[in-house]
Predict the structure.
Amino acid sequence: MKRLEIKLSKHALRRIKERAIDLKFVYDIISNPEQIVYDKQKDLYIYVSDKCAVVSAFHGSYIEVVTVLGKREFNALMSKYGYSRYKVIV
């Protein structure tokens, strides 16, 4: 099976730096998430760990990391919109 390339948006790079998250940790979350959530409204996938959530979009042959949320931000989104917007996949 072919591995998809992972690209980082400028916004994601800023958020990673602001939150002092190791770039390898971001790749590890995508490779081995605790949970995957689908954002039905924006057609995005959120890879969740115990510390943060990586928001990404599929673009054919690659995955684009759109942003990285702190765990508190992710939990606030889930509380606000819940299952009307988000679907837990794994």
About this structure: Residues 5-85 form a domain with the YaeB-like fold fold (CATH 3.30.2310.20). The beta strands are 5-8, 35-39, 44-48, 52-59, 62-70, 86-88. Residues 77 and 86 are 9 Å apart (CA to CA).
